[in-house]
Amino acid sequence: MHDNSPVARWERRTEIPLAVASVVYLAAYATRVLAHGLWHLWLDLCGIAMLVCWAMFAVNYAVHWRLSGQGLRFVRTHLLDTVVLILPLLRPLRVVRLYETVQRRHGEPRLSLHARVIAYAGMSAVLLGFTGALTVYQQERGAPGASMRTFGDAVWWACETLTTVGYGDVVPVTPLGRVIAAGMMACGLALLGAVTGSFSSWLLQVFSREDEGSGDEGRPPGG
Amino acid sequence: MHDNSPVARWERRTEIPLAVASVVYLAAYATRVLAHGLWHLWLDLCGIAMLVCWAMFAVNYAVHWRLSGQGLRFVRTHLLDTVVLILPLLRPLRVVRLYETVQRRHGEPRLSLHARVIAYAGMSAVLLGFTGALTVYQQERGAPGASMRTFGDAVWWACETLTTVGYGDVVPVTPLGRVIAAGMMACGLALLGAVTGSFSSWLLQVFSREDEGSGDEGRPPGG
Amino acid sequence: MHDNSPVARWERRTEIPLAVASVVYLAAYATRVLAHGLWHLWLDLCGIAMLVCWAMFAVNYAVHWRLSGQGLRFVRTHLLDTVVLILPLLRPLRVVRLYETVQRRHGEPRLSLHARVIAYAGMSAVLLGFTGALTVYQQERGAPGASMRTFGDAVWWACETLTTVGYGDVVPVTPLGRVIAAGMMACGLALLGAVTGSFSSWLLQVFSREDEGSGDEGRPPGG
Amino acid sequence: MHDNSPVARWERRTEIPLAVASVVYLAAYATRVLAHGLWHLWLDLCGIAMLVCWAMFAVNYAVHWRLSGQGLRFVRTHLLDTVVLILPLLRPLRVVRLYETVQRRHGEPRLSLHARVIAYAGMSAVLLGFTGALTVYQQERGAPGASMRTFGDAVWWACETLTTVGYGDVVPVTPLGRVIAAGMMACGLALLGAVTGSFSSWLLQVFSREDEGSGDEGRPPGG
Prior knowledge:
4 copies of one chain form a homotetramer. By secondary structure, chain A is mainly α.
């Protein structure tokens, strides 16, 4: 926690600005996708904001590379960072983690282990769904024979995809939209599996703790 | 269990009337939704019953707030209670819990841990499905292009949604219906995940106990 | 295992005939459903076989009731037996269990715990799927607007329902068909969840055992 | 690990050639399925390659049989090997395992237990999906009323089937295509269940380790 290596110091200093940049990037992207008939200057501003944010990510990646002292192996050992550099829309998923860190510093009472896993995986799934709906909507909009006509349709599609319900009333038809959808399915399955699994464990824990509580004269807990 | 704080005493005294009010609220709502051509007086009675029940929930919430001695923080620390105050249809989910408590007082033999989690999560899922089918049906009824035409369709839709099968033969098309459906998917996924997970653990336990049982000369159970 | 109470002796004596009767019942039912244009005498024979089998189940239920010495409470404490008496098609699910018992007596090497749970839940799911396909097909056959036209369609529908894939190309449309389908979804979800959960635990076990095996000079297992 | 029985020595010697043959078999099959208008000689070469590979599998099976010293029981005790002999397309699933072994010999840092299960089950699912898409596409291509028209459609179908989303926009309609699809659903469900379960356990572990890490003055890990 109080690690003083250059990497740790760099991370402590940059985590807040990078998190802000992640959110700004996502917001600017959403504006560009959703706001069709906007004043051109505004769209250009969004584009510039995205470029600036991406430059920050690139600088951060370069500094990490430099500090690691590794050669080309860095790309392989930090595969996740490399992926996030190429797909900056996935970056806000990290903000979920950061929120937890900040809250802890402020001395807030902590949630139980299961509750935190549920919150973390659930919020990641929501962010992933929103990002996926945005990108797939951008691909599908205007495609011939598309069943996804409004952004509302795209959000509804993301909901039924992440929960694996899959009615099939709204479906991506473009090749790129399908590739993004397949990625979203894989990630969403794992995230919602984590939510479900943790919820199940937590419920079992609650019920078993109650058992111990009701027979509290007999056997002191941990005694 | 024998806590004598004012909150605990208030809860012991109010749990039965509040549970009855929850069920009455749900029944009155169901009557209003399902019984179209009913005598007007009857529909008005249902409306009044719903108002009275909701007033009871509000009083209960206010008393809890008062007894807690907290200011506005109460809204945040008792988030679940606040949500249930705004959406009283979700209240019967608590009755499932109460049923278990009452049964225990009557000295009924208790189910095993896994069986209770399965029963609790399963009954919650059934109640959630029924409530969801009611509210979504109210939204969809008469919408142009709706595939959900009868309440039977709505119940069938709730079944295939909660189990994440999702054939897509019956699908909500109105924005509000889709929002409710998305909430139902998320809750149902967690509840049925708990059922599945507990069933799996329970089956493993049954099979492993049987193994020990077949070698019963060697090692007496619990000896 | 060597319990000599009257109930245990009755069970040991009747388990094989009852298992045979269960399979005969299912086979006769399948013949009646699938073989339309059969010679009438044959269909009547099937009907008689079903009646005889059901009479055996009823006698078994009555003997159990008598031996238990309970009054009407028996119906509630043996709820599963009561359900199986009313829906004898579910009886073959017990045969899966019996097969395991018989195999053990013959001194066959036993499978590991996880493998047995997977085998048991998997075989139950297959039987449930076959039975469900039969009964739903009987309801849907000839219904106006039915998408389930052949028994092959029904089996395909059972596959996609039990695995919760739910394409929606084949869907029950009659009320009774949908009720049976909903029951099948609920049971299938639990059974396949058990298969999945056990497979996951088993895979983790295999991989973790391999870890211990590769460092076998260091730390003897269980030493 | 350093087992010197004839079986172990045979396995050590043949694992690399057999893995290569598995991949060659899959590649040759994919070429035959996907490359319609190819020069005939090329297609014939693929067919010959498939035959040669399959001969290698048969020889390997025969040697194992001989070395085991078992009679016809071998077919039953090595059921998986027998299945793989008949369906050689499933063989590359073993290569996933081999890759891990080779990596270990080269002294690569090993992944954690959960990460390895995720990687193994995930890669198996990808291979299974690709193989399934190939074989189902071969059946469906040109069938009347087929919704699977290109290989892209087949891959998209495999994605939505393995994740159990099942939109139903692309669906097999031929009997053989549906049989293969049902097999793929069953295997895919188990594999992705393993991925989900392991991911969930791993996330719980990461979060719980972090808890211990934050109070690191109190209790040294493993001390």
